[in-house]
Amino acid sequence: MQTRLLPNLVSAAKIQRADEILRKCVHCGFCTATCPTYQLLGDELDGPRGRIYQTKRILEGEPADRETQLHLDRCLTCRSCETTCPSGVDYAELIDIGRHYLEQQDLRPWPEKVMRQLLGSVLPYPGRHALLFRSASYLRGFMPAFLKAKTPVIRSTNTYPDYSMPHRGKVLLLEGCVQKTLSPNTNAAAESVLKAMGYQVIRETKQRCCGAVNEHLNQHDKAMDWIIGNLQQWQRLNSENEIAAIVSTASGCGIMLKDYAKILKPHPAEAEAYQSLLTKIKDISELLDAEVLLNNLKRFSPSPSRIAYHAPCTLTHGHQLADHLYNQLVALGYQLELPRDAHLCCGSAGTYSLLQPQISVQLRDDKLRTLEDSAPDMIITANVGCEHHLNSATSTKVIHWIELVAGDL
Ligand code: SF4
Ligand code: SF4
After folding, report:
1. Relative to the CA of 77, which ligand 2 atom is closest?
2. SS3 state at 247
3. 405 and 156 in contact (C-beta within 8 Å)?
4. What is the CA radius of gyration of the chain?
5. In Å, what is the CA distance from 399 to each residue of 227, 261, 384?
6. Which of 128-137, 272-281, 324-333, 362-371 has the lowest mean pLDDT?
7. By CB neighbour count within 10 A (0-12 exposed, 13-18 middle, 19+ buried), where does 316 fall?
8. In this structure, what are the phi and psi dihedrals at residue 171, rounded to the nearest 5 degrees?
């Protein structure tokens, strides 16, 4: 694609990167076929090719308007288009640059600005969102149906076996911020499964937000505070413990953690200082090894339930681990049902479900229809956001896959 980007609209590094990405796009449109918002809204401007074109246009100096911002806001950043693209276009990085530029133009109406500020100041802080979620859960009985559906249910924690197996290294298990409040059981289950595979687990109970909430709301400076704070803390723990892996159980947070390397590129000193630490970041599915687990626990007996497998976009298109996890779970003996259009987003997408509720609900209901086609006993997923989003509209149990495995240890 030919480009004539203006050099001073955003930083020189961002313009250069946007230019590189845009030049890779050959406008073939293959990506539109797998884009959930294009499928739903049927508008080229709400598909990846249209959003790429709009980003190019504004970075070439054409007037930025609210309409363009709306089309870019409607993108879930699910990266399904990246998986489909034959030219390897880094769509998500490009759209972030476009969104960042639009944010600087101050086009949003004030209620949206307030909402975004609120989300950025509450969600990353466990003390604040725990207070909010707990208060809301006490008031559930008095709420109208639409508000009740938006209020997440805080799940309890189970007790799992505490194995001690031949030592395979130490892992730093990140507890997450929203997950620690809403689904603490996921962390308890993860610790039990990791120990059953021979890992010594260090729980990072003081972990701060990964920065995803603020980064995706274009509050980059705040996101950088989280990122640097986390890296300093992990560096300290790593020098004390020789950590083999830094493990996230939420695929959405995990992909943000893996993106630290990209985000730190314009900061060469930090990028170099934390380079080796960044290579240790893993989604928990990368550590699941069916052979080791079956070998360590000879009597492991997988649940006979019918299980529908919902691989989040961050696991499928971000980490590219959806098939790996599926294969490991099948090797453990689970019978998994794959839904139609498994590549499509469930509409959770971080704060998207709060900022674009109509599209989010449509995608959720479509996803639940396909997942429940096989009349499963439960749905498993790999991200706290998807878990609670799907849970809000079904009576079928929705849990993180690690809880399924831990329950069978
Ligand atoms: S992003 Fe990729 S798939 Fe989409 S139009 Fe460009 S080259 Fe084609
Ligand atoms: S990231 Fe997802 S929603 Fe956004 S353009 Fe790509 S496929 Fe569509």
Report:
1. 1
2. strand
3. no
4. 21
5. 28, 30, 9
6. 128-137
7. buried
8. -125, 145
Distance CA 345, CA 34 (A): 10
Interior CA angle at 77 toward 74 and 79, to 5°? 130
Model-wide pTM > 0.90: yes
Query: How far, in Å, is the centroid of ligand 1 from the Cα of 88?
Result: 8
Does residue 49 have its Cβ closer than 6 Å to ligand 2? no
**CB of 223 sitting under 6 A from ligand 2:** no
The confidence score (pLDDT) of residue 149 equals 67
256-257-259 Cα angle (round to 5): 60
- DSSP letter, residue 314: I
pLDDT at site 68: 96
Answer yes or no: are the C-beta atoms of 228 and 270 closer than 8 Å.
Answer: yes
- Per DSSP, the residues of 12-81 read HHHHHHHHHHHHH-----GGGGG-HHHHHH--GGGSHHHHHHHHHHHHTTPPP-HHHHHHHHT-----HH
- 176, two tokens: 């997450």
Residue located nearest, by CA, to atom 5 of ligand 2: 48
What are the chain's domains? 12-104 (1.10.1060.10), 300-407 (3.40.50.1860)
Tell me the CA distances in angstroms from 409 to 5, 76, 227, 299, one per residue in order. 57, 36, 35, 9
Helices (H) and strands (E) in the chain, counts: 24, 8
Is the CB of residue 249 less than 8 Å from the CB of residue 176?
Answer: yes
Average pLDDT over residues 254-265: 94
What is d(CA 47, CA 72) in angstroms, rounded to the nearest whole number?
Answer: 9
Residue type for position 211: G
- CA-to-CA dists, residue 211 to 259, 302, 397, angstroms: 11, 36, 29
Q: Give the residues across from 281 on adjacent strands.
A: 246
